């Protein structure tokens, strides 16, 4: 009978029909404890009973999300909520968590539903460098939640604070500030905070699966190397290849009059993708196209000296993943 439960990964209908047929009924705290003990002992029928008894909870939560977001079909939300319910039934320990199953399961149900809502409804896009940083954050957060549950932490303490996760990751303060900036952007356009898991899928869907951590590190080295260039060299590369889009909140790289070395004001970041032409840069800064070309060549050569030719290639390849313009340069 457990096969019927696992079929929720393809469709919520079998579980829904069984619940409507009378298999769903409220459980007492004593019964939940008995079922939890049997589940830990590997009894599939106990897991099935606990899940079937709480299917109405999934529908109620899914319906509430559906009321705020009409883009996603209710059955899709129920399916994701059922996956959260299955996870909660597998992990539930009433003595360790100090709460009834309905409270514990609601956390997992909302977690799964928020993920699919964010994935299918958000239009916010971030560079690959930030996608991977956010993915590392989410992985560390989930590991800390699992460790807290394993040591018998209460349900209120299973969710770590934002700063606690970054301390566990060993990440520098600059990255914390970047994700804080993303948090403000998400709050203004979506339903929650970046410290919630709801935006993980929305960000992760942009990232190809190959070599994620290596690419993130290459992007970090690239931005560090850019700081070793002159102001005008850094400006040309950042504007031409849209590298400034990888730093949330960065809009300018200097002050002063356009066209004067050491004083460059960046124009607003356009929403379109692709490599900027030298003609566009010339219009922004007031410098001749041939001079901008020469600055780009000298800047790229200096990057190779700073990074080493192999590392420079990896860094620019990473930038190409986040900014496809780097893979096909267009001239003015």
Secondary structural class: mainly alpha
CATH topology call of the largest domain: Four Helix Bundle (Hemerythrin (Met), subunit A)
Query: Which CATH architecture of the largest domain would you pick?
Result: Up-down Bundle
End-to-end distance: 66 Å
- The helical percent reads 55-70%
The fraction of residues in strands falls at under 5%
Order of helices and strands: HHHHHHHHHHHHHHHHH
Which sheet architecture does the biggest sheet show? none
State Rg: 25 Å
Stretches where pLDDT falls below 50 for ≥5 residues?
1-13, 189-216, 246-273, 320-332
The domain count comes to 3
| Envelope shape | elongated
What is the CATH class designation of the largest domain?
Answer: Mainly Alpha
Number of strands: 0
Overall average residue pLDDT: 66
- Summed up, the helix count is 17
How are the elements arranged and paired?
Layout: H1 2-6, H2 13-23, H3 29-40, H4 44-53, H5 55-68, H6 74-91, H7 94-97, H8 101-121, H9 128-150, H10 162-169, H11 173-189, H12 200-204, H13 212-226, H14 231-240, H15 278-285, H16 289-307, H17 309-322
Quick recap of the structure?
The protein has 332 residues and is mainly α. The protein has 17 helices and no strands. The longest helix has 23 residues.
Task: Walk me through what this model shows.
The chain has 17 helices and no strands. The chain has 332 residues and is mainly alpha-helical. It folds into three domains: 2-121, Four Helix Bundle (Hemerythrin (Met), subunit A), CATH 1.20.120.1810; 128-204, no CATH class; 212-327, no CATH class. Helix 16 crosses helix 17 (309-322). 64% of the residues lie in helices and 0% in strands. Residues 1-13, 189-216, 246-273 and 320-332 have low confidence and may be disordered. It has helices at residues 2-6, 13-23, 29-40, 44-53, 55-68, 74-91, 94-97, 101-121, 128-150, 162-169, 173-189, 200-204, 212-226, 231-240, 278-285, 289-307, 309-322. The protein is elongated and about 80 Å long. The termini are far apart.
């Amino acid at each position: 009978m457990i096969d019927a439960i696992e079929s929720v990964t393809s469709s919520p209908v079998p579980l829904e029909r069984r619940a409507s047929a009378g298999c769903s009924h409220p459980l007492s705290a004593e019964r939940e404890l008995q079922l939890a003990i049997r589940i830990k002992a590997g009894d599939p029928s106990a897991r099935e009973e606990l899940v079937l008894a709480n299917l109405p909870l999934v529908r109620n939560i899914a319906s509430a999300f559906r009321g705020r977001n009409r883009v996603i079909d209710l059955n899709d939300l129920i399916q994701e909520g059922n996956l959260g319910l299955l996870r909660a039934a597998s992990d539930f320990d009433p003595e360790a968590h100090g709460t009834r199953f309905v409270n514990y399961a609601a956390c997992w149900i909302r977690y799964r539903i928020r993920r699919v809502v964010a994935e299918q409804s958000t239009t916010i896009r971030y560079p690959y460098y930030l996608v991977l940083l956010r993915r590392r954050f989410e992985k560390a957060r989930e590991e800390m939640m699992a460790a807290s549950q394993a040591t018998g932490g209460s349900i209120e303490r299973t969710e770590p604070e934002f700063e606690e996760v970054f301390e566990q990751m060993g990440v520098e303060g600059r990255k914390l500030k970047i994700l804080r900036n993303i948090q403000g952007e998400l709050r203004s356009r979506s339903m929650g905070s970046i410290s919630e898991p709801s935006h993980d899928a929305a960000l992760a869907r942009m990232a190809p699966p190959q070599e994620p951590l290596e690419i993130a590190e290459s992007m970090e080295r690239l931005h560090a190397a850019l700081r070793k260039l002159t102001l005008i060299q850094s400006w040309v590369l950042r504007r031409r290849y849209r590298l400034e889009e990888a730093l949330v909140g960065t809009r300018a790289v200097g002050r002063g009059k356009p066209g004067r070395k050491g004083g460059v004001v960046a124009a607003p970041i356009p929403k379109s993708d692709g490599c900027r032409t030298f003609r566009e840069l010339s219009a922004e800064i007031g410098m001749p196209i041939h001079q901008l070309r020469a600055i780009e060549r000298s800047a790229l050569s200096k990057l190779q000296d700073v990074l080493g030719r192999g590392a420079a290639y990896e860094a620019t390849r990473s930038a190409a993943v986040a900014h496809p313009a780097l893979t096909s340069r267009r001239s003015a």
